[in-house]
Amino acid sequence: MSESSGDNRSRGNQRGGNRSSHSGRNGQGGYNRGGNNRRGNDNRGGQRGGYRDDRRDDRRGGHRDDRRDDRRGGYRGGRDDRRDDRRGGYRGDRRDDRRGGDNRGGRPQHANRGGAGQRDDRRRDRHNGPQRSGYREERLNLREREPEIPSDVNPKELDPGVRQELRSLSKDNADKVAGHLIMAASLMDTDSDKALAHARAAKDRGGRVSITRETLGIAAYHAGQWKEALSELRAARRMSGGPGMLAVMADCERGLGKPAKAVELGQGPEAEELDAEGRAELAIVVAGAHHDLNDYAAALETLRPESESTDLPPVTALRVTYAFADALLATGDIDQARQWFTRAKEMDTEKVLDTDERLRELGGA
């Protein structure tokens, strides 16, 4: 993974963040933003509960390619092996495997997204308005440096909902973008740098389509490029609206050493638009940000409503339980922390968390 952006979160002591399952593909190639169809083997939460795409070596309880050891609140890009194929696109719908729908993470449906009323960007795809000197040469150089799309990648395998969004592009270019989206999705867990290269190529070819910006944002996030990730996710949100990827964006702020900004995002009006799972994911990130600020009481209170929720999918409920236990421990409430770690252990049927170790540390069973 590329570490050039730097992870400014204090490492080693942040054990319970939220890093969601953004690499949870739904088998159609859409990139689930943490939906209710998550299987129990979601290794998120194994890394001390973080939401981030934890890719550091200190895997205190998870087996993912976790690259951070600050587990007290990140967006963790949980990898639950839902990519049964490479059907690309980082769609991230927090829903249950929509094959054609686009209702991403609380985003409003736009009548013109990929439909007949959508403005035709085919010309813009080839000639995006006034061009500065050297622009065309830059584009040609970028195309020459594009990562190769394997011959067995079929653009038609792209998730139909994602494919719909590419209709504003010329057919040949849409096929290229689809191939890069498929490759970005399929490589996200195994080679984040190559995934990032494919995502950048998709954006270069289809930057006016929100899904390319979102995919690049998530790929950059997985590669630890927080600034680029934040920029692209903001662009995707401007283009399509809604609160999608709010928890990832908050975690990027943490990665940039701005936990107060992460807290601010968690308290903004868009957070109110999230569904129960999205709110829980964001709460874990915000709790981690409070921990970064040494405000352990605020971290605990951020998680308390989610710890009482009955509307969460099992995996999300597990991560919230773990994060809440860790927050209790940070405030010095060892007895309650032990009880909540025990509860998390009972919920963790896949044994992806490090609850046994945590309980041993606390003198529990």
UniProtKB/TrEMBL annotation:
Ranges for the region named Disordered are: 1-160
- List, as start-end ranges, the regions of compositional bias called Low complexity: 11-25
Annotated transmembrane regions: none
Q: Enumerate the SUPFAM superfamilies for this protein.
A: TPR-like
The superkingdom listed in its UniProt entry is Bacteria
Give start-end positions of Basic and acidic residues composition bias: 1-10, 50-105, 134-160
Give the protein name, as stated in the record.
Tetratricopeptide repeat protein
